[in-house]
Amino acid sequence: MRPWIECCIDRFGWDRVIFGSNFPVDGIAGSYGDLLHVFDEVLKPEDEDQLEKFFATNAERIYRI
Q1: Number of domains composing the chain
Q2: Residue 36 domain boundaries
Q3: Taking the alpha carbons of 30, 46, 49, 65 in that order, is the dihedral positive or negative?
């Protein structure tokens, strides 16, 4: 999934990307933990502020939650 994740971040930037999944449908291919592990491995070298945006603050800002 690395090429797709990196492509989205490159195209949209850290202020416009949000973590999402298609669970429970995606459970056929693996667990939710497996999916989080993939994102953890792909995004590991990134800055903590960027990860916070990706996993939380962008959604809070965009969806006003």
Answers
A1: 1
A2: 2-62
A3: negative
Residues ≥6 apart with Cβ < 8 Å to 38: 1
Of the candidates 49, 65, 64, the residue with the CA atom closest to the CA atom of residue 15? 49
Q: According to the model, what pLDDT value does residue 57 have?
A: 97
pTM given for the model: 0.81
pLDDT tens for the 65 residues of the chain, in order: 899 999 999 999 999 999 988 888 878 888 999 988 999 899 988 899 999 999 999 999 999 99
Q: Are 50 and 15 in contact (CB under 8 A)?
A: no
Looking at residue 25, the DSSP 8-state letter turns out to be G
Cβ(51)–Cβ(42) below 8 Å = no
Beta strands in 1-65 (DSSP E): none
